[in-house]
């Protein structure tokens, strides 16, 4: 405690903010830390207008509709590997958006 209250320590701590205005401002700091929310998974059930996808990330089942699938549902088949963006839902399964065949 006595070390923190010494005159030298007080002087040293007062000098810390002196150089702050001279620091370089980085405006692109967020470019390297973006999170990727996408999941990869496998189609486990397919009907005329909907699919169920099991995520490899957390083994959760997601519901996808024809309009969320790149190229339409006719391009996809059972056991296809896909990439998708999860979305919360109040239904039984969360939604899968932007579904792309791998």
Explained architecture:
By secondary structure, this protein is mainly beta. It has a domain at 39-101: Nucleic acid-binding proteins (OB fold (Dihydrolipoamide Acetyltransferase, E2P)), CATH 2.40.50.140. 8% of the residues lie in helices and 32% in strands. It contains one helix and five strands. It has one helix at residues 7-14, and strands spanning 39-46, 50-55, 61-65, 81-87, 95-101. It has a five-stranded antiparallel sheet with strand order 3-2-1-4-5, with no helix packed on it.
At the first level of CATH, what is the class of the domain at 39-101?
A: Mainly Beta
Q: Taking all residues together, what is the mean pLDDT?
A: 88
- In the CATH scheme, what's the topology name of the domain at 39-101? OB fold (Dihydrolipoamide Acetyltransferase, E2P)
| Percent strand | 25-35%
Number of H/I helices: 1
Helix and strand run: HEEEEE
Number of strands: 5
Secondary-structure-derived class: mainly beta
